[in-house]
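## Example record

The block below lists the input lines for one assembly entry, exactly as stored, with component labels intact.
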Amino acid sequence: MNDSTIALNSPSALWAGLSRVPGVAWILGFLVIGFAFATGDFLSGPNLLNIGLQSVILLMLALPMTLIIMTEGVDISMGALLTLASVVLAWVLAHDGSLMLALAASLAIGLVFGLANGMLVAWLKMPPFVVTLGTMGMAEGLALLFTDGQSIVVANDTLAAVYGGSLLGIPQTLLIGAIAYVFTHWLLYHTRFGTYIFALGGNPDALSLAGIRTNAYLIAVYAFGGLMTGLAALILTSRMSSGHPTAAIGMEFDAIAAVVVGGTSFEHGNGWLFGTLLGVLAVGALRNGLNLLTVPSSVQVSCIGLLVIVALLIDGFKGKK
Amino acid sequence: MNTASSTAPLLELRGISKQFPGVKALDDVSFAVYPGEVHMLVGENGAGKSSLMKVLCGAYTADEGQFFYKGEKVVIGSPADARAFGIAVIFQEFSLVPYLSIAQNIFLGREFPGRFPGTIDHTKMHREAKKILALLGLDIPTRTLVHDLGVAQQQMVEIAKALSQNARILVMDEPTAALSDRETERLFAMIRQLQSDGVAIVYISHRMAEVFAMGDRITVLRDGKKVGSLLPGEATPDELVRLMVGRSVDRSYARNFCKTAGELLLEVKGLRSAMGVNGVDLTVRSGEIVGLSGLVGAGRTEVARAIFGADRVTGGEVLLYSKPHQGGPDKAVAAGMALIPESRKAEGLALIRSVCDNLVLPGLPLAFPNRIYKATKARQIANALIERLRISTPSALRPVRLLSGGNQQKVVIGKWLGSESRLFIIDEPTRGIDVGAKAEIFALIDQLVQQGAGVLMISSELSEIVQVCDRTYVMRDGRIAGHLSREQLSEENILKLGVQHE
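Predicted structure tokens for the full assembly:
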């Protein structure tokens, strides 16, 4: 799955994407140049690797978030779900479960929440924002209940090796991120499922008139989000060597920001996966650069908010011309 | 080409009836299509053409009636059934997905399976799509996103989609509405080719020239009934129009027509808007009800919205009470103009609020000059209006959504009685209202003009325009196609102006 197959199979999608590149590419370029001047270390090898490593978890939320937003939905429960999955994973390991068992538990939690989100949205026609607000509260509360508000510390070498280890000289975490990206790309551009995601946002009536059971696919989109969140919990827990009850609270904000900065629209199924990758890197670069400048995290959130607005302004301006 | 009479019908509908709450959309309609014929379906707005089309494609289930496919009795109860018999429909609202490619749209839901389960064979899909586009004489890359196509090209993709399903019966709803002359020619050439391949085509049109140029047979619907089935040689366009309108004229809304109109309230010169108003001139004087007629899609509502400032005006001028007027709806209301919109539930009413709240809303500045709201006074005003308008509601505090359609409409119109407005633009005042309430609504509108107001009334129901209006403008394609004085007003004359003769 290299660039040429992308071009071969969806050059029109790529072209539509390319005409949008400037929005997010301008931002990414501006951030990189700005931080390179403002700090000494930003462009150093270790720091760039750091940005990459830190961005993988965000990418794993932003990828399914792109698909969900393309169906004119949203999933704001992701941050809370990631947190819950992480503490469950840590708990299983802390009680001498195997890493596989822990991962299975994490994925199961993700799947259950994702299915619940999808079924409520598809069958009961409830607004995705409200549905996932509800499940967000549930996941957040369960994480606190489960841990009694304390971190579950895991001293487990196998777990530590997930985040820290390398394969053929490439950090494992980056490999997982790359696989997640390629898999999602394949899903969106090469399968019926992906085609129907475009249709779910663009013209669901056309899809049901074509005899497709739209609800099944809508539920699957949210379920995919839950599974990816469960997988991301493995990396998060490994990185922190613990399960913390508020570890990833609010992370859906970064994910939605990355998707929007990347040029995916909340309307008409107008999505672009590569843009999301760039958007994730932009958010990652911003967080990292501001950290180097020792800007407090509250201000960082404001900056990401500003980033979203600026991205929309640039794209809106281009759209007008 | 036309061997229709010698062969058996491909599809036959017998005695189809379809009832909706309050209206019989189709009443014992029989209809047959033969292979290789273009069957024109004509009728006024609301005559039942769309309903018949939806029954044909399985989107509606008929209450009564039978289907015969090649002489055998069959059941068409769902879109899937219709597809199985080779029936494909091209709706006016397209069923395309904007951010998928042409090829993906053509084969939506019928993708060619790739090597792995769930994957798509893109190579084959684009190859097949290209073949179909070539049949239509289209040379657009099949990877182009539908979003990047013009309306005409989108229409062609719709047709390609229908053809790819091996349609034997192709239903088209006003297919040329969005096409240029050249594109229309191309479409007609394609229709002729399909005809020679034995495809039956059901073609809905308002354009007389098309009906006579392309049709092998014409079926006329009126009020849900079939009123005629004829060959193009058997009638002139004028006779066809007469058949569409019918002769029965119901004079139930008689009013005293305006003898001498008062001062000029509204004058519109060369108005153009971003939504397709294309140079409109009209006037409304005090004491008259002026109709704005034309077929659906002619641009009537768009004119109303442009005058009111709800759509962006791109040219021309509006004189209100002889003063130049421009700006958005807030300015229009402040200047004394009221727009009573087509969809009262979406735009005209705060549904969950009480009758009282809705009634006093436009008159608030007048009733409470010092800007302090007093509930008792508001109630008094509302009760007076309720009595005057004969709105049936147990109390002024009842939420509007619980009232009947007719009473809701009285609230929508009545609320402006308390304001300073003298110019009213009323869009489809009787949509979804029963006959009794209609008469009361018209009495209310009459009351407005008796008090010196001027009304511009948009209606799709020609009989209403004829009975109620002092004079009318007829629109076509975003322009005023003609003006009819009281003496000239008849449904026939409106239709003659509203349909395209060429």
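Chain A has one domain: 3-320. Residues 1-8 of chain A have pLDDT under 50 and may be disordered.
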